[in-house]
Amino acid sequence: MFNWQLHPLTGLNFLGMIISGVIVLLVTLLVVMYTIYFERKVIGWMQLRIGPNRVGPLGLLQSAADVLKLLIKEDIVPAKSDKVLFLVAPVIAFVPSFAVLAVIPFTATHLFTAGLNVGVLYYIALSSITILGIVMGGWASNNKYSLIGGMRSAAQMISYEIPLGMSILGVIMISGSLNLNVIVAHQADHMWNIIPQIIGFVVFIIAGIAELNRTPFDLPEAESELVAGYFTEYTGFRFAFFMLSEYVYVFAISSLATTLFLGGWSGPFLPSWLWFAIKVSACIFFLFWVRATMPRIRGDQLMGFAWKVLIPLALFNIVLTGALSLVA
Amino acid sequence: MLFGIPITGETVSFFLLALIIIVSGVMLLTLDKVMHMALALGGVFLGVAGIFILLGSDFLGMVQILIYAGAITILMVFALMLTQKGDDTSSPPTSGVRAIFTLLGVVVFAVTVLLVIRSTSWPVNRPAVEPFAKPTVTLIANAMFHTYTVPFELVSLILTAALVGAVVIAKKED
User: Fold this and answer.
1) How many angstroms separate the Cα of A287 from the Cα of each of A228, B2, B154?
2) What are the b/e assignments for A135-162, b being 16+ CB within 10 Å?
3) How many domains does chain B have?
4) Is B113 within the bounds of a domain?
5) Smallest CA–CA separation between B8 and chain A, in Å?
6) Range of B6's domain?
7) Are residues B4 and B80 located together in one domain of the fold?
8) Is residue B47 part of a domain?
9) Tens of pLDDT along A77-94?
10) How far is A46 from chain B, CA to nearest CA, in Å?
11) Does B128 reside within a domain?
């Protein structure tokens, strides 16, 4: 098979990269559409409801109808808002969420994967820029709910980024590389990282859900106290952009968890992309499961949990991994 | 070839990044609202990270994005949101005399820099810089944890002390 990572950059290869980027974008949009559909269906079943079942067979076209509705809605910009920032904030929030997918190894052939030597760091670094978009959007709306939502999300996402990064360190120590392709190849040769890195995996999943601003960590958009949080004033396709970046991150963090801990594309019998899809679906299902089960936690508990529980646990995991690798 | 510069992927990306840095820098100086300036500063940081990556030090570029474009910018925005009240666009009116002196200063500075650049003998036809022998992550790790372990530990000790000191000072003011 053709492999981007072994070829020099020529005009034709550049064109190929752009085409594969567009393909990844389209696949991601499709995944996001059906992620939203399955979220509503799964949570519906868990709460003994039916979920969407009107538009198309089994309600399969519900998300498409919702997206169409959002796109043709009026684009309202509040009169007292900071116009430029208000318009540019959804873009700042969305672009990194899609850009992080560049380093995810979807298949064994690396058809759409950048072989970056600092792949893990690239993911963490770019995903931190989304916070800027969220805070800017909350501030530019000139609305107290938006402002409080934006501030909460900034505090929460910065705090949980630290345990998230630390939980990955154990995996990096085992694999000896920051390159996601090497990490997956190492797991294919040895065993899935979830077994020696179970503490790291638990910390990663908790911090990951907090990074996504999802229940039980959805304080930035807690509807019972903040209306809708940082996107209270957003309508139409700008609102759709915020939602889109949130769900692209659901896909991205599930892909990252699969790549780092669940062996990525490696697995017997089935083709590599199918294994990847199965594992990512399991991760996404877990996120929905947590959302349907857990109540929202309080703001003061949130910060204490990150700094007093998760970070010491992640540090302990690093020390343990180092000690075990010295012994073995 | 364009103005004696070969058109390759590297030169194109260098000039694009330079354009981003300069435009963001000018915006940082000229924009009215502090919040917009913070965003422009983020653009400068991103452009500098791109230059680092272009020079082959991908680790440094990523850390630049993580620390500066991510954390520092958000920290600034956060501080501004908590301290700024209402409209902050009022800038003092500039007088004619001041404008003339500013123009004079800029012209003198530009002429000086131009003369210095013209009188410097630049090395020409140097052989191309060798790429790094190993991945930069390996090189940095070797430098930090083998060659300079003691200075590295001392620096981390100083940073921890600064962190604890900041907490102590903040607690005292309560």
Assistant:
1) 20, 53, 42
2) bbbbbbbbbebbbbbbbbbbbbbbbbbe
3) 2
4) no
5) 10
6) 1-86
7) yes
8) yes
9) 888 878 888 888 888 888
10) 38
11) no
